């Protein structure tokens, strides 16, 4: 197990995302996957108020009823939960109502880790953090965190919290996988520097790295086939070439591409636990197997070489070569 940042709380090397609960997975399937995760030692279960219109939280609340004190429960707020213009964002007006609604659906007295689901461009960050701190003081939230924040946004939030004496952010949740590596530039180094836990989502790139996709290969159904958001996110034809080469590398070593893709994400030193997800038990098994797959530096580098490394934050690409001024 790993520590959740500076909190002293221990979490499993894999975390389970419950976005499928009440959507792609009905209650019985959700219950079976939850039980299998618990059997495998998973203790962090991630949710959000917008998943399945709130049904994911309701199902998760039912499932944790008998083991509430043995799991680390997370949820999020920001995205629209209704048609009203104020049923979204990170204003105090919305966040207080959102947290109280999540607590009712989850049938619990506290949210262990509460994520701001996105940076709110229209709300003063100090108001947002003050609101979250008040919710911490009320015992409704134990630890604040952020999702989909840039490194500078997270650092700004950490600075405000330190200056004002607010409860500090303990975790971040960025997108990170073999074809989406922007987090390597600033988010992951920032997290290492500040001892902020990292729970990357989409380690399988929406299914792209499962071995089912290639330049001329598509399954009949899946997020990248049916979901416009995912089709846009992974619309670059080059990522399908990467996916095919990755699947070949995995199979040449007798490994399941699903397990290897998740294990590769987990192998980054800043990562606390990748978020895995599934629609059924068959999909879940190779995800859980990633916890037992060791990735050494050589294999990590070989896999990383399949996709372009993002440029450094300063664009001084010579820094990684012999042609630089050196370091101290």
Short description:
The protein has 328 residues and is an alpha/beta fold. 38% of the residues lie in helices and 11% in strands.
Describe the structure.
The chain has a domain at 2-173: TIM Barrel (Alpha-Beta Barrel), CATH 3.20.20.100. The chain has an eight-stranded parallel sheet. Strands 1-2 form a two-stranded antiparallel sheet. The chain is built from twelve helices and ten strands. The model has no long low-confidence stretch (mean pLDDT 96). It is globular and about 50 Å long. The longest helix is centred in the first third of the chain and has 15 residues, at 92-106. Strand 4 (44-46), helix 2 and strand 5 form a beta-alpha-beta unit. The chain is of the alpha/beta class and 328 residues long. The protein has helices spanning 27-39, 55-63, 92-106, 125-137, 151-164, 187-194, 223-226, 228-233, 238-252, 257-266, 281-289, 297-304; strands spanning 2-3, 10-11, 15-17, 44-46, 72-77, 111-116, 141-147, 171-173, 197-198, 275-276.
Strands in their spatial order, largest beta sheet: 9-8-7-6-5-4-3-10
pLDDT < 50 stretches? none
Global structural class: alpha/beta
The tally of helices reads: 12
Q: Mean pLDDT, rounded to whole units? A: 96
Oligomerization: single chain
**How much of the residues is beta strand, in percent?**
5-15%
């Amino acid at each position: 197990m790993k520590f959740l940042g500076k909190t002293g709380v221990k979490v499993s090397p894999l975390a389970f995302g419950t976005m499928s609960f009440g959507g792609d997975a009905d209650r019985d399937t959700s219950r079976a996957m939850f039980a299998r995760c618990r059997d495998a030692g998973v203790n962090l279960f991630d949710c959000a108020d917008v998943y399945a219109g709130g049904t994911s939280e309701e199902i998760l609340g039912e499932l944790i009823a008998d083991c509430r004190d043995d799991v680390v429960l997370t949820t999020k707020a920001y995205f629209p939960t209704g048609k009203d213009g104020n049923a979204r964002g990170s204003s105090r007006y919305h966040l207080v109502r959102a947290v109280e609604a999540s607590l009712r659906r989850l049938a619990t007295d506290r949210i262990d880790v509460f994520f701001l689901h996105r940076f709110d461009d229209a709300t003063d960050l100090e108001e947002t953090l003050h609101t979250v701190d008040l919710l911490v003081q009320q015992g409704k939230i134990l630890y604040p965190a952020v999702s989909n924040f840039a490194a500078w946004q997270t650092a700004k939030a950490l600075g405000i919290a330190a200056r004002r004496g607010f409860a500090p952010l303990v975790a971040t949740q960025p997108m990170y996988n073999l074809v989406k590596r922007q987090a390597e530039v600033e988010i992951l180094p920032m997290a290492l520097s500040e001892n902020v836990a990292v729970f990357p989502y989409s380690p399988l790139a929406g299914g792209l790295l499962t071995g089912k996709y290639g330049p001329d290969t598509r399954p009949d159904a899946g997020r990248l086939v049916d979901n416009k958001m995912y089709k846009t996110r992974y619309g670059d034809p080059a990522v399908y070439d990467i996916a095919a080469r990755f699947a070949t590398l995995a199979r040449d070593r007798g490994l399941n591409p699903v397990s290897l893709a998740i294990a590769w994400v987990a192998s980054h030193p800043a990562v606390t636990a990748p978020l895995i997800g599934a629609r059924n038990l068959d999909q879940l098994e190779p995800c859980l197997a990633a916890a037992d797959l060791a990735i050494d530096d050589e294999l990590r580098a070989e896999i990383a070489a399949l996709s372009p490394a993002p440029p450094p934050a300063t664009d001084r690409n010579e820094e990684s070569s012999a042609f630089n001024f050196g370091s101290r």
